[in-house]
Amino acid sequence: xxxxxxxxxxxxxxxxxxxxxxxxxxxxxxxxxxxxxxxxxxxxxxxxxxxxxxxxxxxxxxxxxxxxxxxxxxxxxxxxxxxxxxxxxxxxxxxxxxxxxxxxxxxxxxxxxxxx
Amino acid sequence: xxxxxxxxxxxxxxxxxxxxxxxxxxxxxxxxxxxxxxxxxxxxxxxxxxxxxxxxxxxxxxxxxxxxxxxxxxxxxxxxxxxxxxxxxxxxxxxxxxxxxxxxxxxxxxxxx
Lengths: 116, 113
Known about the structure:
The structure holds 2 protein chains of 2 kinds. Chain A is mostly beta strands.
């Protein structure tokens, strides 16, 4: 049982280049999330999805796009990378259980992205 | 606007001591308060969580204390061990919002021998 798998683990881009980060989960979770982690700022939600074919904006969505064509996959795209997007990106997923409150999120091990 | 404030930023505790990390929140609609533990190069992992219908939850050496009136909650690590050295994040969520989490800024804990 792999849980949440993120690829690649590392990526280096030049300013203006584009890239796509992949997240895959094998727990049949409905909800999936993308966060960025920066020193001293904790984790901030970029975009999230409540199910296949749906996406929604989080706290810091500008400069990012996402897609969830399959339930198990959640892709994060940067169309024109900027140095301010240098960060560690984490994907997470969780169950949707009606009537029982928020559920724990399960995280991948992150993608370290550097924009030169 | 930082909705969950965490302190201290870093903490050094001797082996066998008690580690205490505090968080305060502003939004009274929060009703789920997890703590995550993160080791270098890894993603955060759920450590323990509490809902506001109880004031304390204990799992092994880890205890969450929750004060609804003060809008504060804290993590206590008893008998701290070097293996507990990690970064700890508090978080909060609201039922019905797709389990979205608002995180604190993290506390780097170092347990010395």
